[in-house]
Amino acid sequence: MFFDLQFAPVVANMPALLKGVLLTIELSAAAIICGSALGLLVALLRHLAPQSLRWPMTVYVELIRNTPFLIQLYIIFFGLPAYGFKVSAIEAGLIAMTINLGAYTTEIFRAGIDSIHRSQIEAGHALGLTRVQIFRHIILKPAVQKVWPSLVSQFVLMVLTSSVCSFISVEELSGAANTIQSATFRSFEAYMVAGALYLALAILLKSGLFAIGRYAFGKKAARVRSFGTAALIAGEAKQ
Prior knowledge:
10 helices
């Protein structure tokens, strides 16, 4: 079996692919920031709210995590205008990605918060830390440190999930590749190049985020294991 691969027509349209890469990065970065903030907020509300008031957040998480992202995207893109809320394709994609990522990061943050032992919080109170200092240093930082690898994986998945937005004509990387293959009839080559670009994005994002994690948590993690979170943070807070 002989394959006649011709990448020249695809390379000739590389500016369109790079424009798609840029839109993918912008869309994913905005979704990661907004989705992480939403997930952290919902996780804190589920942690702090009385049991009787947690059901709306539980419904949100279970509903989003157990339905396809494409359906969620269609509901936002086609459903909101029916009720008078006009959104562009890019805005619909960003909203859908934010809501989707928020549900997944809620569970990740919740696991990290639940991993903080109650004795650490009590030790923080005993050492004279304020509620803000306890939340910021004893709860939030160690919680994020524990779940950072899971967060990184979820962020990478969200970058790849952004390709679904091409179904509503968002000209991100997949959308650009689809346009190019329609014009050049070189489908295999176009999607091979797009796949390579997605792979490069995923590797760069993962490497960068893990480097950030090592910078933010590496040295402190060893000190926490040696001296204890509350005692360490109390010393830093009083400096």
